[in-house]
Design brief:
The chain is built from 15 helices and 12 strands. With 370 residues, it is an alpha/beta fold. Helix 6 links the parallel strand 5 and strand 6. The two termini are 36 Å apart.
Length: 370
């Protein structure tokens, strides 16, 4: 079945909604070979914005590197190497990689489903170092007509060798005058620290773009049309508002819930709030195992924190006396410690002085436990 909503992959072309201003700004930066850092919550549409922007430029391609869960220099290097190999598929280039990094004894495989070439390493492979990182960044510069995207860039700040990695990257990247670089991240305070703290090697090296949810009225209209045009389903503004509020207006989460709502309904039917609630229950049953795994890995204080947060108005709260009473955590300092650990694990995020779930559906699942 073809759904009129898209979740879990980049959205481009006719499926892309709005963001004309952001597209024009980002195009200008890319065409000027600038360095830009994008800050936005998970699933807000940063990656789709980048892909749609580069698609419209047409003569450029994306060299995509995801630093999610990078733990050390070796991880950083291997993620960059995988990105380069996925970008440059020529056999002659792979031979060059094998020769240049022969000490890694790399193996290659081809994924028929994605069309992507993957690289593997044996468990006894020597670790890659700062020297390897310099070689890889030189390789990036040698490629043609590309836009380099470092996704979840803030995760580099968690590795033990952060200063070395950032200093090496800055030293090399600042000389790549013909290559545009985009640094994307979902943890606001970490990204801001990397690019605005004067002690950071990346201090003032890139222009900030703050990516907010798509303008609500525009996106509501887009979602309404998708329900009515593709399946002739009737849905009221009130129900659309309910979906948007439940999902914190995050486009990726809205589309995911709309898919389940679509499945729960039939052509020509009228979608009610109860339809959405049934769809949500079905989704949570599918996500139960992964949510249980996250929940079981939390400390007792962290569990108390998220349970209280799930019951707060809109799942949004600061650490007030009322919150401490609700959470049954005795000390403000203990609550802050639990919150900081939850932020590091991307389970919650901090907006101004308030805390909020990163995943609104995890909030609904936690709330059901109370």
């Amino acid at each position: 079945m073809n759904y009129p909503f898209i979740s879990g992959k980049f959205v481009t072309g006719k499926d892309f909604c709005g963001r004309e201003e952001e597209l024009n700004i980002l195009k200008t930066h890319i065409n000027s070979n600038s360095r830009v850092y994008l800050i936005g919550e998970r699933r807000v549409g940063k990656s789709s914005l980048i892909h749609e922007c580069v698609r419209q430029i047409s003569e450029k391609k994306i060299l995509y590197i995801d630093f999610w869960t990078a733990r050390n220099i070796d991880d950083v290097c291997k993620k960059i190497l995988q990105g380069i190999i996925s970008y440059e598929k020529k056999q002659s280039f792979l031979i060059k990689i094998i020769k240049q990094f022969s000490y890694l004894r790399p193996t290659f495989s081809f994924d028929q489903n994605t069309g992507q070439t993957n690289i593997g390493f044996s468990s006894d492979t020597p670790k890659m170092t700062v020297g390897s990182l310099e070689e890889l960044l030189d390789l990036i510069e040698s490629l043609k007509k590309h836009v380099v995207v470092f996704d979840e860039f803030q995760d580099v700040a968690h590795i033990p060798e952060t200063e070395k990695v950032l200093a090496t990257m800055r030293s090399k990247i600042q000389s790549h005058t013909k290559v545009p670089y985009i640094f994307a991240g979902s943890i606001r305070n970490k990204m801001i620290d990397i690019f605005t703290d004067y002690k950071s090697p990346f201090y003032k090296t890139a222009i900030c773009m703050d990516i907010l949810p798509i303008k609500r009225g525009l996106f509501e209209e887009f979602i309404l049309k998708r329900f009515s045009k593709n399946g002739k389903r009737k849905v009221s503004r009130e129900v659309i508002n309910y979906i948007f509020d439940l999902c914190y207006e995050i486009p990726g989460d809205i589309q995911q819930l709309c898919i389940y709502t679509w499945i729960e309904s039939e052509d020509t039917s009228e979608i009610s709030e109860d339809t959405v609630k049934r769809a949500l229950r079905n989704m949570l049953s599918m996500l139960k195992n992964s949510y249980e795994k996250i929940y079981d890995s939390l400390s007792s204080q962290q569990i108390l924190f998220i349970k209280a947060l799930s019951l707060s108005k809109n799942g949004n709260s600061n650490i007030s006396k009322e919150f401490l009473k609700l959470s049954q955590i005795d000390l403000t300092q203990s609550a802050k410690k639990a919150a900081n650990r939850l932020i590091d694990r991307k389970i919650i995020l901090k907006k101004s002085k308030n805390y909020q779930f990163s995943d609104p559906f995890f909030r609904e699942w936690v709330k059901s436990l109370n």
